[in-house]
Amino acid sequence: MAPKLPSASRNGAIAALFVVMWSSGFIGAGLGTAVSSAVTILMWRFIAVAAVLLSLQFLVRRRRMTPRAIAVQALIGLFSQSVYLYSMFSAIDLGVTSGIVSLIDALQPICASALAGLVLGERTSGRQRLGLGVGLAGVAVVIAGDVGLHTEAPAWAYLVPFAGMVALTVATLIERKARLETPLMDSLAIQCGASALFFSVVGLATGQAAMPTESQAWLAILWLIALSTLAGYGLYWYILKRRGVTYVSSLIYLTAPATLVWGFFMFGDAISLLSAVGIAVCVAGVALVHSRHASDAAPLLEEPPRPADEPEAARSTLAAGPDSRRGAPS
């Protein structure tokens, strides 16, 4: 039998996998919008994944969801998928590179951490705050080194991704505040269903609902379903409920450098020396946030402790798997 990896190594592996999967979404956006509109790609992406997940929910249904749970998950889906992805894809469609879009998205940890303290009462240590500040500085350095290399997009297009960044933050806070006991795949099914409805309405209203015919468009859709939706979003909510807003949001810093690397190998997007320095600063900032002294949260692959007075009915949900605890939304 292979030796069991230490907890820190397992946590690091999960975090690294999340970074790769989340950053893959920006690359999928670049692949898709090169041959089709953002709305068309997003509409058919969510129609396909919602059909699969909702069918599985009805065939292998573990328990009935309450109307409140369905409404909350739909709201989370509209913010974390519909508004967030529409903003990111639209920015790329307007000519902003996938690397720059991901860098603007990397401001989300600062926004999420600040609001988590106000809305949720989650505490951040001095080391975590320092790490977030260092990461923000790294993002600024990378942007400074990359903007001069790409001038195709109008200046106002760089504001579009900010709306998506705020939407993802809002969805994150709603999930933490609601704390529903919804299994992960059920949550993803409702969220993707809400997004499929949203993009279908937008597609029909704007004349962009026709099924894509280019093979590259369907390659992008399959890429986005497997890597970004199922793996990326699944890991985001999985890590969020175990380690909190600051921890998972800080990983977004690394998706920006990861996307630049993706873009270099897949699209030939240049990486300046200044951007490379910024990437190193981002990594240092995330290391500070994730250092052992910065967080006392439970390991990602261990069941979080249960309070002594927890109702027996709530304990029984653990039998459905680790994702049934404290309401993973997606």
Descriptive overview:
With 330 residues, this protein is an all-alpha fold. It has twelve helices and no strands.
Main sheet summary: none
Helix run count: 12
Calculate Rg over CA atoms: 19 Å
Percent helix range: over 70%
- Outline, from the CA principal axes? globular
* Mean residue pLDDT: 77
Structural class: mainly alpha
**Low-confidence blocks of residues:** 293-299, 301-330
What keywords describe this structure?
disordered C terminus, 0% strand, mainly alpha, 330 residues
Topology, pairings included?
Elements: H1 7-33, H2 38-59, H3 67-93, H4 98-105, H5 108-120, H6 126-147, H7 160-178, H8 184-206, H9 215-243, H10 245-267, H11 273-289, H12 312-316
Helix pairs in contact: 1-3, 1-4, 1-9, 1-10, 2-8, 2-9, 3-7, 3-8, 4-6, 4-10, 5-7, 5-10, 6-10, 6-11, 9-10, 10-11
